[in-house]
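Here is one such tokenized protein:
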Amino acid sequence: MSCLKREVALPSAIGANGLDFNAALDMLPRAEGIRPGGSDTDMQPRVPVPTPREAKNGGRVKHANVPPAGVYLPNNNRLTPNMRSPEYVQLSTAAAITLGIMPGKMHGCSCTRCLNLLLTYPEGCRANCAYCGLARHREADRDYADRNFIRVDWPAVPMAEIVAKVARDGVNTPFHRMCISMITHPNSDADTVTVLKQWTDRIDPATVPVSILSNPTTMTRGDVQTLYELGAEIFTVALDAATPEIFDRTRGKGVQSPHSWAKYWEIMEAARDIFGPQKFGAHIIVGMGETEHDTLALVQRLVDIGGHSHMFCFFPEKGSLMDHLPATPRDQWRRVQIARYLIDYRGVRVEHMRFDEAGRVSDFGIPKSELDAVIDQGLAFRTSGCPGKFREDLSACDRPYGDSPPSNIASYPFQPRPADLRKIRHQLGMEKPGEAYEEGEEIEVDAAGP
């Protein structure tokens, strides 16, 4: 199969340095047609600026000390209350709509099948990940409970209220899974245990299985064991970066943040031992300066140790240290989506695939007829994450529009329809004869079925 570089690119297909993929400067010599890059085109985060003393560690919130009063909606033009886990947690906008806490609807889907809970404190997350809206450097301009994360607001709700609502629905709950997202905070480990106990005391994990999105930096092997014994089913680690170098540049010393690649792998290997095969995995963000081969070699490594991968398309999160950089070009993203699906669910190995001099997939290692069938099925382009109740390769954690706007969908929270598949093929440069995609032909869809 020839290289899948597109000949005619959509505007979203232009990445760093004018290429059709997001390349960092240290790998540009491998690519053809390089245009000289600079600090705004090489996937390099901005340098964090110092935070005024009065804003550090949630200073404004703790000084005002406004007591919480039920549900708090971010950015509602009043002082942010002094809310803390485990009494309070934040939940995604989609989860809040599904739970009936916020009004609204999502394009093409019935909001979400996963109840994503996020620990919360006035001090916020003490890490400084360059692509994250929750990062510590935002203390100067936005209180923690008002910060956006994966493109949406996260209202804060009493944990007891959430548990009561889900317990009342019983087996009729719309949620296929609950996930506790830890942050880098001194209390995060203990409070995760408390939140998990509150949940399992009222809700059978067999009805709504529990995942943990961990914070390895503060954890020990004993912490992993405790969460397993308390009923968590799946344990995930947000590696996010595909290589140690990108990890350090975006999550470690490069941005004055405490995380390390080695510690993340230490805790993931503990999860492998404790939770067992297919019950642990890692998040990977595509398009932060790695090659497609870098990403897929990591996917293969996870499969080889019994784990799974959950992939996100890089999107310049507003307020982050990388919000000036281009989103992942869709052709790069689609190639990696297909290849990841083949490795995770179809037994194809990265060694079976071929890559060009810039590390882009040029051959998926399967016959064209099989590749066409995978594309037409559409599952490879769905949001990847912990499984729900339908099938192993269909995630409960559908994160509607967490890595793209609905106008240019990266991860589909609904089954792609024929017009969507034509657009995907157009993005890949693999259109079928007589089925050309026409810009703007996507259709509104109803949320019927998975």
The first strand starts at residue 88 and ends at 91. The mean pLDDT is 88. The longest helix spans residues 330-345.
